[in-house]
């Protein structure tokens, strides 16, 4: 389970979170646009379960082509922001803890998780892997996207601490001045493959300057 400070940080950040997709950086924005196109192709005509949907950026993108999207997030504040977006296809939002909510097994063609794997404690990866595997129908696919490590010495690179499991913690400040120390892990491509390969069949890895994504199936 992600630590409470990280979860509460995102609850308070709900109204400003969407800014991450519109930073004044053409390369970063192009990477996101390219991923939207790949994701929409992946979910076309499919029934999708989205975990930790946040403000619904990826939800709206998937609703363009998916047959149905069920989007879960623990905080009603995030769901409220997500509902403000127009959705071309049917979307069901549910404000629940994804680890305790009774998600139907083998009910979805795609499980999608945007920018949440990095907040999972390393010592609980098997629990997370179970969570994203059980809802999949036979032949279903999992899609994840995450941040790459910031440039050495650059803004956002500074870590507050590491714990005994190797989890990294960073300080994040909200616009209202509130400060949180949140769990945030980063991965290079070899580590990603090493983490996922024992449990999943990796079908695609995209590792760019700012973001990585992976598409994989259950072995």
Secondary structure elements and their pairing?
Elements: H1 4-12, H2 26-43, E1 47-51, H3 57-63, E2 68-73, H4 76-83, E3 91-95, E4 108-114, H5 125-133, E5 136-147, E6 161-162, E7 168-173, E8 179-183, H6 189-196, E9 200-207, E10 211-218
Parallel strand pairs: 1-2, 1-4, 2-3, 4-5
Antiparallel strand pairs: 5-10, 6-7, 7-8, 9-10
Helix pairs in contact: 2-3
State the main characteristics.
219 residues; alpha/beta; 7-stranded mixed β-sheet; 27% helix
What can you tell me about this protein's structure?
With 219 residues, the protein is of the alpha/beta class. The protein has one domain (4-218): 3-Layer(aba) Sandwich (Rossmann fold). The chain contains 6 helices and 10 strands; from the N terminus they run ααβαβαββαββββαββ. It has helices at residues 4-12, 26-43, 57-63, 76-83, 125-133, 189-196; strands at residues 47-51, 68-73, 91-95, 108-114, 136-147, 161-162, 168-173, 179-183, 200-207, 211-218. The strands form 2 sheets. The chain has a 7-stranded mixed sheet with strand order 3-2-1-4-5-10-9, sandwiched between helices. A 3-stranded antiparallel sheet has the order 6-7-8. A hairpin with a 5-residue loop joins β6 and β7. The mean pLDDT is 92.
In short, what is this structure?
The protein has helices spanning 4-12, 26-43, 57-63, 76-83, 125-133, 189-196; strands at 47-51, 68-73, 91-95, 108-114, 136-147, 161-162, 168-173, 179-183, 200-207, 211-218. The chain is α/β, with parallel strands linked by helices and 219 residues long. The chain has a single domain (4-218), classed as Vaccinia Virus protein VP39 (Rossmann fold, 3-Layer(aba) Sandwich), CATH 3.40.50.150.
């Amino acid at each position: 389970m992600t630590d409470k400070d990280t979860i509460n940080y995102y609850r308070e950040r709900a109204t400003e979170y969407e800014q991450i997709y519109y930073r004044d950086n053409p390369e970063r924005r192009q990477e996101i646009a390219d991923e939207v196109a790949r994701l929409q192709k992946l979910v076309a005509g499919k029934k999708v379960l989205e975990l930790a949907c946040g403000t619904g950026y990826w939800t709206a993108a998937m609703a363009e082509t998916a047959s149905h999207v069920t989007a879960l997030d623990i905080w009603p504040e995030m769901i409220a922001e997500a509902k403000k977006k127009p959705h071309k296809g049917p979307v069901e939002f549910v404000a629940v803890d994804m680890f305790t909510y009774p998600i139907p097994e083998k009910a979805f063609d795609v499980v999608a998780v945007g920018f949440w794997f990095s907040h999972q404690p390393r010592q609980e990866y098997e629990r997370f892997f179970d969570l994203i595997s059980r809802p999949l129908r036979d032949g279903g696919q999992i899609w994840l996207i995450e941040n790459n490590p910031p440039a050495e010495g650059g803004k956002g690179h500074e870590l507050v601490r590491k714990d005994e499991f190797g989890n990294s913690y960073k300080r994040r400040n909200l616009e209202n001045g509130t400060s949180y120390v949140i769990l945030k892990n980063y991965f290079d491509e070899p580590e990603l493959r090493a983490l996922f390969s024992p449990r999943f069949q990796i079908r695609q890895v995209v590792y760019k300057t700012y973001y990585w994504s992976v598409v994989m199936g259950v072995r």
